[in-house]
């Protein structure tokens, strides 16, 4: 039986297999979203975007963001992947610069909750300390596991 919207129904055969796969993929997707959030919070990406000299609604390239993050061994490829993924989830805004073709990122209403300058109005503690099972480290500054 699979409960949908508060009701239960029996699902057999291929439909049950596809439904079961969809449920597991949804759980994995939520895990990946949580890990992505934890990475950008630990790196201070929202704060870096908020530090733009032209104001908090300005866009920055990945290289500009990286210069404002205090991690010298930052893996730019991994940061790019996390930022694009979270942009698809509307955590960050992303547009492509018409001249350079470079992805430019900005804050959204969601990512403003990740800023650390006002702890009473930030969800940063919930992200960092509410996800203890994920371990420490962003995975963006340490060597990849092989």
Automatic annotation (TrEMBL):
This is O-methyltransferase dimerisation domain-containing protein. It holds the Pfam family Dimerisation. Residues 26-117 form the O-methyltransferase dimerisation domain. SUPFAM superfamilies: Winged helix' DNA-binding domain. It comes from Hibiscus sabdariffa (roselle).
């Amino acid at each position: 039986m699979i409960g949908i919207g508060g009701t239960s129904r029996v699902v057999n055969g291929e439909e049950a297999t596809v439904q079961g796969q969809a449920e597991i993929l949804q759980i994995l997707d939520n895990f990946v979203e949580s890990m992505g959030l934890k990475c950008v919070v630990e790196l201070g990406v929202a704060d870096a975007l908020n530090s733009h000299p032209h104001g908090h609604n300005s866009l920055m390239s990945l290289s500009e963001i990286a210069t404002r993050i205090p991690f010298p061994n930052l893996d730019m490829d991994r940061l790019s992947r996390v930022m694009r993924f979270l942009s698809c989830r509307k955590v960050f805004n992303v547009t492509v610069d018409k001249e350079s073709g470079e992805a430019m990122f900005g804050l959204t209403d969601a990512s403003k909750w990740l800023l650390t300058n006002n702890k009473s109005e930030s969800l940063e503690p919930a992200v960092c300390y509410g996800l203890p099972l994920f371990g420490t480290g962003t995975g963006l500054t340490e060597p990849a596991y092989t």
